[in-house]
Write a structure and sequence with these properties.
transcription regulation; mainly alpha; DNA binding; WH_DNA-bd_sf; three-stranded antiparallel β-sheet; transcription; 3 strands; Arc Repressor Mutant, subunit A; Winged helix-turn-helix transcriptional regulator; globular; 163 residues
Length: 163
């Protein structure tokens, strides 16, 4: 479209259509997947998403500091702290002093926390399979590789600041 003088209108060149803007679409899909999973975790296990993420990260390599959980999950300090407190109150995680850093604690799963993880993990994998069942194994592999490349590009465009 021109402005009457044969020049392209600025609004034509820079117009953003949200439903075709890839960052927005990624966010919408992510939110929908998280909401579906969150509903199941709350209903079945009484866990909020940050609490489940914390349990999952601890289960991978316990004990771990809250700071390391934040780095691994991209959750902010307050979210990690609240999740850790809620899980400790439920007896699902234990907090021990960190000999390497007196300002932090090491988080580990209790026996009850491990038993809950052992119930939740298969359900998480089942939900993942249901969500991605329309993709064949090669497409899932390609999607995973694409997401890694997008994450790397995002880190280059907007590096995370050290807190």
């Amino acid at each position: 479209m021109t402005d009457g003088g044969g020049r392209a209108s600025v609004t034509d060149v820079t117009q953003l259509k949200l439903d075709t803007f890839l960052p927005y679409r990624l966010s919408v899909v992510s939110n929908r997947v998280s909401a579906a999973i969150a509903t199941a975790y709350v209903r079945l296990f009484g866990l909020k998403i940050p609490e489940w993420r914390l349990i999952a990260v601890i289960a991978e390599g316990q004990p771990i500091t809250q700071q390391a959980v934040g780095v691994a999950t991209r959750m902010d300090k307050v979210t990690v702290s609240r999740a850790a407190q809620a899980l400790a109150e439920r007896g699902l995680i234990a907090r021990q002093p960190n000999a390497g850093d007196k300002r932090s604690h090491l988080l580990s799963l209790t026996d009850t926390g491990r038993a809950l993880y052992d119930q939740v993990a298969p359900k998480a994998l089942e939900m993942e399979a249901a969500i991605f069942q329309q993709l064949d194994p090669e497409e899932r592999k390609t999607l995973s590789a694409m997401l890694e490349r997008i994450e790397a590009a995002t880190a280059r465009v907007a590096p995370e600041s050290a807190e």
